[in-house]
C-alpha cells in the first residue's frame, strides 16, 4: 500500500487548510497511479476555489472530508504504477492535478496521452481531463518546467484571445487597452499582440507600474487614475472592476468600439452591444477545425516556447516543497498581494 497526503481547504473559509493522509488501494484494470511532482500555484487556482461550487471545480478531485475541497493545480506528474501497457511506469505527463501527493486515474488513450475516464469526471470539460505525455507534447521543454506550470494554464487563453482579435481586425480599432496589465494572462495577451499593428496600453496599480513597464510589452503604461487617449480602442477587461470599466466608457465614449471581458467575473450579458464575454473554448474549437489538432498543438506550442523564453527574464521563481510549502504559498496567494515579479512553484 502507498500512503498519500492531501491538502484540503474549507469551502466556506479558504484560509483554513488541513493535511489528510490515507492509503491507496491496488489499481484496477485501465488505471494509472500518478505521483505529483511539480505544480504552479497562482491567483488562477484561487479562482477555481472561489467559484468551485458554481462552476464545478470541486468535482474533479472529490473528498469525503465534510465541507472540504481539493483545489486543482496544473503541473507535471510521473506514472509510478500502471495497468495500461501503452503508458508504462516512468512516463511523465502534464495536466490537471490535485493538491495531493498521488492521483489515481482511469486512462482512456488519446493521441497525445490519455484522458481520465473516471465516472466522477465524465460530465466535466474535456480540456481538464486530458493528460499529455511530455515526449509527445510539442510545447514541452524540460529546462523550463517551472515556467510552464506557471504560465501554460493561462497562456492558451492569451493566445486565443489575441488570435480572435486579429481575426476580427481589432473591430476597426488600432489601440488595445488592457486592465490588470501586470497579470499573467494580460501580459501573455500583450506578448501575442506585439507586432500586430496595434498600440498596446496597459493599465495597472501604482505599485505595479515599474514591473509592467519592465516587461517591454506595452507601448504605454498608465495607472487606473490616468486618462487614456481619445482614439478608437478595444478594451480588454482582465480586472473585473466595474469602476474601471465605467470610467473607460465615460472617457472614450463612442471611441470605445469593443469591450471584452475575460475570466469568470462577467458572465452576465450586457445591454451595450459593444460588450462581450470572451469564451476561449469557442475559438479553440474553431482553430482546431481550421488547423487540425496537430497543427493547433504545434502553433500554440511554438508560441508558448517563445513566450517562456522571454518570461524567464521577467519573473524570479521560488521552489517550495511538500504539504507545508504548499499551504504556505496558498495562504500567501490568497491575500492577493503577491509581487508580479515573483512566482512560486511546488515540488511534491
UniProtKB/TrEMBL annotation:
Q: Which InterPro entries match?
A: DUF2855
Write one Pfam family the protein is assigned to: DUF2855
Q: What is this protein called?
A: NADPH-dependent curcumin reductase CurA
Taxonomic lineage is:
Bacteria, Bacillati, Actinomycetota, Actinomycetes, Pseudonocardiales
